[in-house]
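[09:14] KT: can someone run the structure on this one? pasting the chain below
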Amino acid sequence: MGSGEQKGFTRITREQMQQIARSGPEALFSLIDYLQDIIEGFEHRIKELERQQKTDSSNSSKPPSSDGIAKRMYRPRQKSSRKPGGQIGHEGTTLSMVAHPDVVKIHLVRRCQHCNESLAENRVKGYVRRQVFDLPEITMEVSEHRAEIKRCRRCGRQTVAEFPAGVEQRTQYGSRIQSFAVYLKNQGLLSYQRTAEVFEDLLGVSLSEGTLAAIDRRCARRLEPVVQEIKDRLLQSRVRHYDETGMSINGKLAWLHSTSTLEYTYYYPHPRRGSAATEEIGILGRGKPSVSVHDNWSNYFGYDGEHALCNAHQGRELKFLAEECHQGWAERLYELLLEGKHRVDLANTAGRTKLSRGLLQRIHRRYEVLVGQGLRANPPPRRVSGGPSRGRIKRSKARNLAERLQRYRVETLRYLSDFSVPYDNNLAERDLRMMKVQQKISGTYRSAAGAMGFCRIRSLISTVKKQGASVIAALSLVFDGKNDLSLSSCLQKG
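[09:31] RB: done, structure tokens below
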């Protein structure tokens, strides 16, 4: 009767209907089957479009930037039993007076404010103290290095003293100003133009964009062995977080890959997202046996070792099914995952290292029951008569999610049995967030070398901040001219 496709659908005329009616019941049944297939196809398309319209960053993996201004401005918060403001026991961050201020200014009492009697000769009984915290005036300091020249009385030749390490040019910028330039560009995420404006406005120093770019390149070159040390430390870590995001290099789509722990961060740009990039990076599936925490990107499962899925991602998908598709199993499963997280948090607070066997068994049994309900509520699609007879039949989002939760039950619930494995992959997402901000500002990287340099510098900055060290002190070491630059020296508390 037809191909079953919605495109190019042609209405059946009354004459054709009459001809079908005269042809007997079988022709009529074929027509009804054909029309039902058409209706089912349109119904599926309508549901898919409605699903897309209802998804945002709170119930799917879509980024917040795709929500639109209205949704970003209004995002209702869940009600809490806490009152607004600071909570009991919370330490405030108000400025506290210091015992030994840098400058003390005495304000004299000259006359009595009541009778105007002179108090110039009276003894001081005490002081009322107030302290003002401010920055000193920022000025450029120029240091001149003079190397002595002496002539030897014995041989008659001259000898010139050696300059300190890092003093190589007739005039040059010092390590501190170069470290500030790198910080503003790569941590403050300013453009070269705005970085130059900051130096001009605050220091009265004219730095060209070309000079700033050269400083960045010099920093990236010197950091290559340090970033290799970060990679080596990650290879020895048991729990590693992985994520990737799109980036533009020279106008072409590329990918920014990250590997993270609580102590270290490693970024790497690559034209590909899959195994070609993973092999070149050389961390996933290498080094010490580890647990890989990630989202459901199939490339990760191609490598040996244990895996753990991000339940923040899966929770958003379950939330959508519960709120927009009214599937009760999804709401109950989402609550079960959160209950498990709450149980783990309580156990950690109490100093325990695992949940009781009975509790684990109860959660696992409940999980299997709810996933089974999800599979039954979303049966696999049947092949449409008159449609393509070969190829994979497209499944619904709900069916795909239910099948994934069934297939990766161990990976989804690993956080319950291994407290070193987190509930989600938020660590990797946080480490990528500022990289996305950089892309919004700059839009693109002009070259692969520029993208690689930025990744090296950000790998150091993120690692240093995670370990509570001074970023400026670490960057200053890069430019001091010494040859013993290492990750350990950069992590010294400054």
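[09:33] KT: thanks! The chain is about 45% helix and 10% strand.
[09:34] RB: yep, looked fine to me
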